[in-house]
Structure formats: C-alpha cells, structure tokens
Amino acid sequence: MVSITCTGCNKTYQIPDSELPENKPVDLLCPACNTVLRVQKDQQQTRAETKTPSQTGPELMERIVQTSKALPPMPQIIARANEVLSSDNSGFKEISQVLETDQAMATRVLRIANSAYYGVSVPVTSVQQASALLGFQTLFELITVVSSSRMMGKHLEGYNIEAKFVWKHSLSVAVGAKAIAEKYHPELINDAFMSGLIHDSGMVLLDSHVHKNQRQFNELLARGKTLQDAETEMFEFDHAALAARYLKNWKLPENLTHAIRYHHSPAECGHDPLACILHISDAMANTNNLESNFVMDNSALDAIGMPTDDLDQMTFDMEDMVDSIIKSMEA
The HDOD domain covers which part of the protein (predicted)? Predict the structure, then answer.
C-alpha cells in the first residue's frame, strides 16, 4: 500500500500496490482538488510533485485578481476624497460632505486627528476643523488610515498572523516610510505613507492559497526560506507581485505599484527611492518577525543616503507614533 498526501488540499490517500506499475511513476488526479499526484510503487510515502496550471503562475495570479473577495475594489470613500482633494474648486464643505456619507469613518478620523501623532494643540471636534488645522492632504491620510484598517486588519490563517499584528505592521511601515521620506526624499512623503499602508495587501489575497498548502509552506520556512521565496517556490510569484497586479485595478500611480512590487528587492529595480524607503521601513517594522527570515538589503540605505545609525532612533519613534494612533482608534 502506498500512502500519498496531496499538497493542494492535504488529504491523504492509500493506493494498493496492485494498482501501480513496478518502479515507474504514474500521475493521478486528487479526487478532492484535481491536483496532479505523482505516485511510485516503491515509495513509502510521497507528495504531489506537480500542480495543475490553475494552481501556479500567471493563471493563478490573474484568477486571484479577478475573483478574490479578500480585498475590495478601491474603497469609494478614498476614491471620492481623492477626487475632491485634487480639485481646485473644493473646500472644507466638500470634504465634509464626503465624510458625512460614512459617520463611522468620520468618527474614527476625528479620533486619530486628536492623537499625539498629529500634535494638534486644541481638541478637534469636526471634519471642517480638522481640515483647517491639518490641511487637506493630512485629512486624506487620515481617511486612508481608517479605510486600510478595515482592509488590512484581517487574520491571516495561512501565514499564522493575528489581525491586530497585520494591521499594526501595515501602519508601522506607513509611518516609518513617511518619516524616512520626510528626511531623505520629501517629494515622496504622501506616496510613502499610502504605499506603506497597503504594501502587504498581497498577503491578504494569497492567504487562502497558502493555507491550502500549509504543510509545504511551513516546511519551506523551516528550511530558512524567506516568506517571498517560499511563496515563489509554491506559486511562481510572491505577495508583492500579486499586490502590484491587484492594485493596478485601483488606478494608483505607477510609481506606487512599482515600489510595492519591489519592496522586498529594491536592487532589482535599480534602487527606486520609494521601493528603498518601503524596504527599510518594512525592516524597521519587522521586529516581531512578522515576515519570516526577513533580511534587509543595506544597499537600500546607501541608495537614499540614510546612515545605519539612524535606524534605531527612527524605529523607536515609529513604534511610539504607531502606538499613539492605535490607542486613539481604540478609544
């Protein structure tokens, strides 16, 4: 009797020796998920060696992009707020009207506006007051924070990451990236914050597929593979590539999706400054090893002129600011 475990669904089957040829592999379809299982009679236990085309590569990526419900299309309130803030004819009244369509959003925006991170000297009690004190761009930042907390605050079963840590990591990378940009590339401040919030959205999209291949994924990490290398070995793409493809549907500026695509490997895109900023901030925010076996590429520091000595203080400041934002949201 030959025992075989499918990597597609982790079901185990027992196949009588009499049904298999001697010392010759044979391909069978898993009855549960149609994964191709390569079985050989002289094996005591084997696993699937190949996968159907729909389970890997560009075909799988496109299927996830087109059918996944894990992430929404661009939240309408972000799209509308961006439209209003980009118009020369918009004022406090128009942006207030946008937020009035979602009172829960407005309430959380005001809570964050009163956090220590934004440093206002008087209590902020209305959206119009927040606009006047903080400016339109910061108000848009607040809207994206609240919206992304809904999107990114999800438990990732395949990656074994609790919802609160997924969201905290996303916010940390955004805050850290903004701080780095302020000091070394001020023209990228807004892009750094926005891309930081959603840089790991591909993990949300890919999580169910990782979970289906849990044993293989865990084995790859145990062997020292980085998160993205394990994903690539399993699916022929990683979560960064998937996020970049998905976010094209949001019609984000190309420099944002490009930086998200290469935030794990900035050297591969010629050390694009925004990709380098995301990479460094990701490393700063990875103190709890959220992304297994993460290794920072120090050439990213050199590319933007950031000395290694700045890392500790900026990491400390980032953690302090993130705690103040999260505390305000939980109030």
Answer: 71-266
